[in-house]
Amino acid sequence: MEMIPPQSITTEEAVLGALMLEMQNNEEVMAMLKPELFYKTAHQIIMTAITNVYDRGSAVDIITVTQELEQMGQLEDIGGPYYIVQLTSKVATSANIQSHILIIFEKYLLRELINMSEETLKYAFAQSIFPLDLVSQIQERLDDIAVSVEILKEESTVSAVDSAKEQFNKTHVENISNYYATGFTGIDNVIGICRNEILLFGGPAGAGKTRFLIAIMDKLVTYPDVSIHWFNFEDSKEKIIRCFAAIHLLISEELLREKKKKLPKEDAERYLAYLEQFKQYDIVFVEEPKYIKQVGSLFTAFCKKRPGRMNICIIDNIMLLEDNTADRDDIIGKELSKIRIRTKGLILPVHHYNDEQQEKGQLRLGYRPRLVHLKGRESYRRVCTQILLINKPGNYADLVAEYKGLEEIMKYMYIIDVAKNRDGVANEDSSTLIRMWANLDFLHFKDIEDASNELSL
């Protein structure tokens, strides 16, 4: 026996009739409706005609809709003028139209879930698609459904004000900060680390982007509510852990990695003790996913297991994702935005500069990089809420040669430019140019004022 999909024909008739009778130019109602929500094919066609009339700015009524159906060549397909008149005769009042639309949407949502389940079963039994790709497809379908659900959600002004009031009280009355201090004055004062952001780290090869990121994470993991999902496409998890250890042990990652020369016994014991301490942190390393949608699916699952926490997603390096399509950057940008909205987490992609511009020396002028130096189109950069551009002047031999006698200063100088900042200043002459001292061997970074004070002592 064939099962009939979820539907409510009488409710569909009532909504269409109300639209043509009493709901002219109602933006709120029209924003909630689209033809595919309706189960009956004739009703989908009628809704298409109503939408066409509405979009042209004309009044929606029996005459204009009938004329539109005639122009579409589908008037007889839906049952002729008589059926249109019959729809309006079934409407007693349009007062309950939003409740009726919710019923139609619920039925549509159930049909979509059934269709998605059937397609998933077909692909799963056929084993014709990589499992993680299938999960990504399912997630994308669910995202599309979620967007439709959001349209139907309504937040009153009172509710919005209550939310703003709650946030204000936490920050200014209860003194509960939304930001996580890194210990680096420039970073904390100019951008601030918090949830629901996409903070991109950009820089040329060898500038120490990953090492600076590790130094920041070394501060954040000490917070009891911080969890990190680390997609390490460029460096192994063992190397990343050695970098964490270098900060605390004053032993370079290179020495910890050395295979031919053994560490002194005392240093080896200190390193092993640190590894035991490192186990307390909630960090999950992932090397396998190679597509941005897979990253999104895995991080979403990661966050669902850790509700209410400061969940951080690190993608290092985002250029190593294998989304090799013509619109690659558009896809990555769209997915990064979806991940942020879905998880409310902190997304940290790491990115390279354009090699050609680097070779031409365009990054050397004033040591100050620009957004145009980043690889790829503007589309994925547009979704980032904050962008930090990193440069290390000491990496350029001819530039160092210009500053005779200052070689040591150049060697350890580290420049960070806040090139984009949704909630603050960016691209300012001095306030957003953060100067630091950096010893990349030991991953020690200091604000230049602090380092200068130490030197003067």
Strand content: 5-15%
**Largest sheet report:** 9 strands, mixed
What is the helix fraction of residues, given as a range? 40-55%
Structural domains: how many: 2
The helix count comes to 20
Cα shape: elongated
Under CATH, the topology of the largest domain can be stated as Rossmann fold
Query: How would you write the strand order of the largest sheet?
Result: 3-2-4-5-1-6-7-8-9
Mean pLDDT: 82
Radius of gyration: 29 Å
Contiguous runs where pLDDT drops below 50 for at least 5 residues: 359-363
Quaternary structure state of the chains depicted: single chain
Structural class per helix/strand content?
A: alpha/beta
Note the run of SSEs as H and E.
HHHHHHHHHEHEHHHEHEHEHHEHHEEEH
- The CATH homologous superfamily name of the largest domain equals P-loop containing nucleotide triphosphate hydrolases
The CATH level-2 architecture of the largest domain is identified as: 3-Layer(aba) Sandwich
By DSSP, the count of extended strands is 9
Describe the structure.
The protein is an alpha/beta fold and 457 residues long. The protein folds into two domains: 9-139, DNAb Helicase, Chain A (Orthogonal Bundle), CATH 1.10.860; 185-456, Rossmann fold (3-Layer(aba) Sandwich). It contains 20 helices and nine strands. It has helices at 9-21, 27-32, 41-55, 62-72, 80-89, 97-126, 131-152, 157-173, 185-190, 209-220, 237-249, 253-257, 265-278, 292-304, 328-343, 355-359, 378-382, 397-401, 407-412, 448-456, and strands spanning 197-203, 226-232, 282-286, 310-316, 346-352, 386-391, 413-421, 433-439, 444-447. The relative contact order is 0.09. Residues 359-363 have low confidence and may be disordered.
